[in-house]
Amino acid sequence: MGFISEDFMLSTSFAKELYHESAESMPIIDYHCHLVPQQIAENIRFRDIVQLWLVDGRSGDHYKWRAMRGNGVPEEYITGDRSPWEKFEKWADTVQHALRNPLYHWTHLELKRVFGIDKVLNPQTAREIFEECNEKLASDDFRGQALIRKFGVETVCTTDDPADDLRWHKQIAVHPFGVKVLPAFRPDKVMAIEDPASYRAYIERLSDAAGMEIRSFADLMDALRRRHAFFEAMGCRLSDHGMDTFYADEYSDREIDGIFRKVLEGAVPSPEETGKFKSAILYETARMDAESGWTQQYHIGVIRNNNEKMFRLLGPDSGYDAILDTQCAEAGHRFFSRLALEDRLAKTILYGLNPKDNEVLATMAYTFNDGTCPGKMQLGAAWWFLDQEDGMRKQLNALSSLGLLSRFVGMLTDSRSFISYPRHEYFRRILCDVIGRDLADGKLPVEEMPFIHKMVKDICCNNARSYFQF
C-alpha cells in the first residue's frame, strides 16, 4: 500500500467516510496562488523535475530552499549552477532529514498523485525517482495545463500587479484549456514608498499602464481606478494585500498629497508619513473593492528579506522571510469600522502569519459581519508557515470556536508550483479528520451526518463558488 495510503491522516471511520464520500472528488477552486500566467498561457514543458520542483533560474520553492540550507546544503546546490542531478541528490538527502516537516508529506503526496511513484524519497531511491520523473515530464500529459487539469481544478486566481497588462490572461482566454484563469489585484507596490527611487520607477510604470501622467495623489487614485476597472473587465473578482500589519492612521488629503509629491522628488518619508500614506492607500483601494463587489484579502504578519547578505545576493522571495510579532487588532478594527460606517465594506478574508493572531483575526472578522451574505467577513486558511498540519488544525479550531466553520471558503495553494494541488488533499484529509474525531468522541451528533457531508463539500468547493461568484 505504501506510505501514502488510502486512509492517510484519517484516524476514525467517520473521517474516512467524510473524506472518501464527500471531500475527495470535489473540484478545486484555487482562489489565491502565485503561478506565473505566462507559463500557463504557453503551456510550459518542464525541462526536468528540478525545474518543476526546486528551482527555475532565481525563482523556485523557497520552502524547500530553507530546508536544504538547514540541512547544511551549500547555496551552489540550491540556487547556484550545479547540475539538476546534483541539486536533486541534495534535495533527496534533505527530505530524509525532514521527517515531521510538512515538506515530507507534500513531497510524497506529489510523487504519488502527480507521477504515480509510491516510493519513499531518500538517497537510495533518488536516482530512479529522478529518472522516472524526468521521463514522464517529457510527455504532453505533464505540461503545465495538463498538470492543472489533472487535479480537477475549476478556477485559478493568479497574483498580479495593477501595472500588469494581463497579456497572458488574454491569451488564455483566447485559447482556453478547460480551467478558468483569472487575475487578482495586488497593489502592494503602490504602498511601498520607503525607497523613493524604486517607488518613482514603479509610478512611471503604473502611469504607462493607466495611460496618464501621475503627478499628484489624486492622479494616483485615478490611475488605480482605471486599472481596477481593467482588471474587472478581465474577470477579476478579488484584491490581495500582503502587509506587516493593518494601517489606520488619521490623515488629511493635503497631507497625503504632500507625502506623495515629496517621495516622487526623492525624499525619504518619515515613519509617521509612511503610516499615514499606507492608511490612505488601504482605505481607497478598499472603497474600490466595495464599489465593484469584489472580495478583499489581507495577509498580515510577515517580516521580509531579513538576511541582508542573502537579499543582496538573491533578491526577494528566496526563503529569508519570517513570522512578525506585532499588534494588529487596534488598527484593524479602526480600518474596518471606518469602512462599515460608510457602507463601503467589501467581503473580506483575513490571513495571519503569526499563530497568536488566529483568534484576534477571527473575532475581528465577526465584529463586522452584517447579515448581507454568509461569511462576508471571515478568517482565511492557514497561510505560508502555518499551512501544515498543526497550523491547519489550529486555524480550523479557531474558526469553529469563534465563527462558523460551515461558511468557510476553504483551502488555497498560495504556491508558485504547478504540482502543489495535493495541498488541497492534505487540507481535506485534515478537515475530515477534525470533524470525524468530534463525531467519534460524541461531540457532534451522528444524526446530522447528511448535513455534515454537505458541509464538507461546501468547505472544499461550493462555498468558494457562491462567495466569489466567478
Question: How would you describe this structure to a colleague?
Answer:
This protein has 470 residues and is of the alpha/beta class. It has 20 helices and eleven strands. The chain has a four-stranded parallel beta sheet, with helices on one face. Strands 1-4-5 form a three-stranded parallel beta sheet. Strands 2-3 form a two-stranded antiparallel sheet. α1 (13-23) packs across α20, α17 (358-367) packs parallel to α18 (389-402) and α18 packs across α19. It is globular, with a radius of gyration of 23 Å. It starts with 12 loop residues before the first helix and ends with a helix. The model has no long low-confidence stretch (mean pLDDT 97).
Gyration radius from CA atoms, angstroms? 23 Å
| Approximate strand percentage | 5-15%
Q: Give the averaged pLDDT, no decimals.
A: 97
Could you say which structural class the secondary elements and strand pairing correspond to?
A: alpha/beta
Q: How are strands sequenced across the largest beta sheet?
A: 6-7-10-11
Q: Main sheet?
A: 4 strands, parallel
> How far apart lie the N and C ends?
39 Å
Number of helices: 20
What overall form do the CA principal axes indicate? globular
Total count of strands: 11
Low-confidence stretches: none
Helix content: 40-55%
